[in-house]
Write a structure and sequence with these properties.
- The chain is α/β, with parallel strands linked by helices.
- It folds into two domains: about 120 residues, 3-Layer(aba) Sandwich (Rossmann fold); about 100 residues, Immunoglobulin-like (Sandwich).
- The chain has six helices and twelve strands.
- The strands form three sheets. It has a four-stranded parallel β-sheet, with helices on both faces. A four-stranded antiparallel β-sheet has the order 9-6-5-12, with no helix packed on it. It has a four-stranded antiparallel β-sheet with strand order 8-7-10-11, with no helix packed on it.
- Helix 1 crosses helix 5.
- The longest helix has 13 residues.
- The protein is elongated, with a radius of gyration of 20 Å.
- The termini are far apart.
Length: about 230
């Protein structure tokens, strides 16, 4: 089984952490939470190791209670496997010196989940659905669509932007971290991004008279199609 988020935490912080787990699951993220995910009689250390390997992100719920050897084992294992580690600060306890990371400092579970989702990207269910069912470029009324094609060096994003009436939107800015483009008279654009593709890429869509749109686009698989709606102001 695969997970979006592996939750590493101290038992003393369980009442706070479980509220976040519930919020993440409401957002349809698949969460490894040890008190629910490890069966009675199972070798817990082997299960933890397998589950960290099968997870996309390790959420390190850090506090004065979270300094045990077990939690150290979990985040060191994640680091060794090249997994993304996202700390959530539950109090003022400094992070281990090895971490030079931007931590989540929000308190409310809804706010924490919103920040974490930017690191995790789409949940597994959505990623698999789009990967299995969508390929190529398509435009639906009231939305724009784009295709992500992964290449050996860099990756290319192509697509079409339309307005809320389904008409091509010319002159819209499409901005990525390493590239930018304007849509043509047919609302089409092409972005050639440099470097190795990340797990997901953040796109910004801007057009005078329209609300700015932000979207995290997964780059998993050869083809990926995402829908976005640009609303007038």
């Amino acid at each position: 089984m695969y997970f979006d988020v592996f939750v590493s935490y101290a038992r003393e912080d369980g009442p706070r952490v479980v509220l976040l787990v519930e919020e993440l699951r409401r957002l349809r993220y698949r969460v490894f939470f040890d008190v629910e995910s490890i069966r009675i009689g199972e070798n817990w250390k082997q299960r933890l190791e397998r589950s960290i390997k099968a997870s996309r992100v390790l959420l390190l719920c850090w506090s004065a209670h979270a300094t045990s050897d077990l939690i150290r084992f979990e985040y060191l294992k994640a680091e060794g496997l090249g997994k993304k580690v996202v700390p959530w600060l539950l109090d003022n306890t400094p992070l281990p010196a090895m971490f030079d990371l931007q931590a989540i400092t929000a308190v409310d579970p809804t706010d924490v989940a919103a920040v974490l989702s930017k690191s995790v990207g789409w949940n597994l269910a959505r990623r698999r659905f789009l990967g299995a069912g969508l390929a190529g470029i398509a435009v639906a009324a009231g939305s724009g669509a784009w295709l992500v094609r992964i290449e050996t060096r860099g990756f290319e994003l192509q697509g079409v932007v339309v307005d809320d009436q389904g008409l091509p939107l010319a002159g819209a800015q499409v901005i990525a971290e390493s590239a930018a483009a304007l849509t043509d008279s047919q609302g089409r654009y092409s972005l050639k991004c440099k470097g190795l593709q990340p797990e997901y890429i953040r796109l910004r869509f801007k057009k005078a008279g329209h609300k700015e749109e932000l979207m995290n686009v997964s780059t998993e698989g050869l083809f990926r199609m995402v829908m976005v709606k640009m609303q007038p102001k």
